[in-house]
Every structure is written in structure tokens, then in C-alpha cells.
Amino acid sequence: MSIDLHMHTTASDGDLTPEALVTLALKRGLKIIAITDHDNTDGNREAQRIAAGKLLVIPGIELGAEDHGLVDVLGYYIRQEALEAGHPFQAWLTELREDRFHRGERMVQRLADIGVDISFERILALADGAPITRPHVARALVEAGYAESTKEAFNRYIGEGAPAYVARKRLLPEEAIEHLHSVGACAVLAHPARVRNYETLIERLVTVGMDGVEVVHPDNNETVRLNLRGLAKRYDLVMTGGSDFHHPNSDGTVNLGAYNPPDGAVEALRERAKRYGL
Which among 14, 125, 195, 257 is least buried, having the fewest CB atoms inside 10 angstroms? Predict the structure, then answer.
């Protein structure tokens, strides 16, 4: 069965609306997907409505945490009531997104301090109502001619350690896990290859109830995947996977659905979620 458990829409930093993403997923032959926008669940309800009877959409999210570097935590099977406006979980997410807005402003100021002049208004336009993320800033840098690609923009200006980098609001991965469990969701460490000393971090987060690790991801090479499988078996963690899709590649190819999770991942996540009141 074709499954992709990591993708983004215009509700955060993806290029496709939830409707367009569901349409593409169906075209790609996917049967199960998870919408995992950054600090935002808005794309889930629209995707579920459009996909009804055609495709299973697992309500998800990707929370950005900090622990000697960036640590993203994926959440799966968020309770439906927690997706609704007015729920305490939504109020907490609003605080996170407001921090992203001010973070964007600070990055623009730091860029100006080193002679790189881009407009925050242009970044807002590129975000088009979604929370401000670094990819939006990167796109503005490319558009203004300061970088040839978003990757170069990150490396030269806004990546960790670069002159205009601004850290997110400090959210420990333990706190992210606690918030996810409070709304019935499983907590999964995202793209571990990007995390410093991921083995040590996994060992630590297991003690606070982390449920899984993203074994299959474009950034995880075969050695990392093999190591993650061993850690997952040792600590009884669910092994997940996904494309981390944001937009088609520059050559027009699409990796949506190209990174299927290990067999049984969805069933294992559903069972884990029952621990938190699914």
C-alpha cells in the first residue's frame, strides 16, 4: 500500500493547498497520507473533507523544538476536537506561530545589518497567510538575487550558525511530546539524520514516552536507516517514513509517495494513539 506520512501544505511552508495536495496524492496512487504542517493543523480538516471516501488523511503536525540545535517532532492521530478553533491546543499553536512572525522580522533586521535588503512585506506575501518560516525568507532572498537557490540562502544567511539565523521560541522536545500526548497524538522524532547525536537524544526521549522515529526520509542514508531500525527495536518504537514533501523539484519531478514507511507503521501508530485517548 502506498503511504506517505510527512508532507506540507500552504498552511505552513508547502507550495500546494490541501486540496491540491490531496489531488496530487490521489494521482500518485497514495492510499494513506498525513498532513504535517509546521505548528499548524489547519490543512488537516480541509484535506480530510476533500479526501473523504478516496484517501485516508491522518491528522498530524510537525512541532519545532530546540535542543542544542533544531529537533522536529511529528505528531500523528491528533484528536478531531483538538483541530477545532477554541481548543487549548490551538491557542498554544497560535503562540508558536506568533513567535515565527516576530522571528521573521528579526531575521530581516539581521539581514539588513549585513547589507542584505529584503522586504518583510514580501515575505508576508510569499507566506500568503501561513505562518512565517525560514523557507519563506529563503525564497525572498532568491527572488532578490542574493542567492541562487533556497539551499544557498540557508547556508549563507539564515541556516543555523549563519549571520542572520534567529532561534525559534525555545520548546524542548520533551515539551513537544507532552503536548502531543495531551491531544491523543503519537510523538515521532522527525528526520533524525539532521539531529546532532540522535542516538543519545532517542535514548533520552524514550524515557518521556516518545513513540517512534522517522526511519525512511530523504535525508536518512542507508547507514542511518539501519541504525534507526536497531534503535527502534531496542526501545520498542514505531518506525515511520515519508517524503517531507513541500513542492515539486526544480526539474519538475515529484517525490511525494517515494518514501513509504516500513510495513505496519500506520497500524502501529493507531495502536499507540490509543494510549492517549484516541
Answer: 125
